[in-house]
Design brief:
Number of domains: 3
CATH architecture of the largest domain: 2-Layer Sandwich
Structural class: alpha+beta
Distance between the termini: 77 Å
Strand content: 15-25%
Shape: elongated
CATH class of the largest domain: Alpha Beta
Number of helices: 8
Helix content: 40-55%
Order of helices and strands: HEEHHHEEEHHEHEEHE
Radius of gyration: 33 Å
């Protein structure tokens, strides 16, 4: 015969609360906190014991308290999403009534044939309040939207240039071959820029997935500068921005992945040119730090 195991249900219930992936409080009709897990205190920045504290003393936002009161008054679940402040924490609030007594077993006390058995109203004495922090998810969504907007802008500019150059090339190809050749070279520059942008997107995908190997090797610091300058010179000329250098100890070798650090410098230089007014100057250089 199997040995019967005594279960401490209060302890078991507390362990269930601790297993929840987000802060959970259990309150009664009077908003008094009866149980909570360890994730609650850090969320509200408190170290004091919360048992028997009123929920509206811990949660100061009236909208959240109103949501909880509605659940208590209607004995039904309530859900809501709450922004504490602009660009601040975003919480998903779930309030769920907890039935205190089990339902009546229909096999016990069967009514006479032809009559309906009345089911008693559920006994809701406690309510679970779960708070899921969506701040990081919302931040990632904003980053994704900004990223898509930036990529769309970066693609639109060279595509518009290629279209304009192609239309002009059609007119000049028979009448002015030298001018036509100039347009072809400009189209090649724009296509090269587009190819580089696509390569950057693929590289970003590999970085995020952790599949980008690093090839660390000694490389001269000034070599990285000159390579970045050479790649961005056409763009600087288009924007009428002067490129300058201030190289100190350029022969010093640094340990780096020349390809990846080169991309970093190109991106920095690209943004500097993009946001520098026409006629301005962008300086890229090296300096040995002790």
């Amino acid at each position: 015969m199997a040995e019967r195991t005594h279960i401490n249900y209060r302890y078991f219930f507390q362990e269930l609360l601790e297993a929840m992936p987000w802060p959970v409080l259990v309150i009664d009709h009077a908003l008094s906190i009866q149980y909570y897990n360890q994730q609650v205190a850090p969320l509200f920045g408190t170290t004091q014991l919360l048992r028997h504290m009123k929920l509206d003393q811990l949660v100061l936002d009236p909208a959240i308290i109103q949501l909880v009161r509605e659940s208590i008054q209607t004995d039904s679940p309530r859900y809501g999403e709450h922004d504490n402040e602009a660009r601040g924490p975003t919480w998903k609030i779930s309030v769920t009534p907890l039935e205190h007594s089990p339902p009546v077993n229909p096999r016990e006390g069967m009514p006479e044939q032809g009559t309906l058995m009345e089911q008693p109203e559920p006994d809701y004495r406690y309510f679970a309040v779960a708070i899921e922090d969506l701040s990081e998810l919302r931040r990632l969504e904003r980053v994704r939207r900004d990223f898509i907007a930036n990529v769309s802008h970066e693609l639109r500019t060279p595509l518009a240039s290629i279209r304009l150059l192609t239309e002009t090339l059609e007119d000049a190809i028979d009448t002015d071959p030298d001018k036509a050749q100039t347009f072809v070279e400009k189209i090649e520059v724009e296509v090269h820029y587009l190819s580089g942008l696509v390569a950057d997107l693929l590289e970003l995908s590999r970085i995020e997935s952790g599949q980008l190997p690093m090839a660390i090797e000694p490389v001269e610091a000034e070599q990285l500068v000159w390579e970045a300058m050479a790649r961005l010179l056409p763009q600087a000329q288009r924007h009428r921005v002067k490129l300058g250098t201030e190289i100190h100890d350029g022969r010093t070798r640094v340990a780096a992945d020349s390809k990846q650090i080169g991309r970093v410098l190109v991106n920095l230089l690209h943004n500097a040119i993009k946001f520098t007014p026409s006629g301005g100057e962008v300086i890229l250089g090296t300096m040995l730090q002790s």
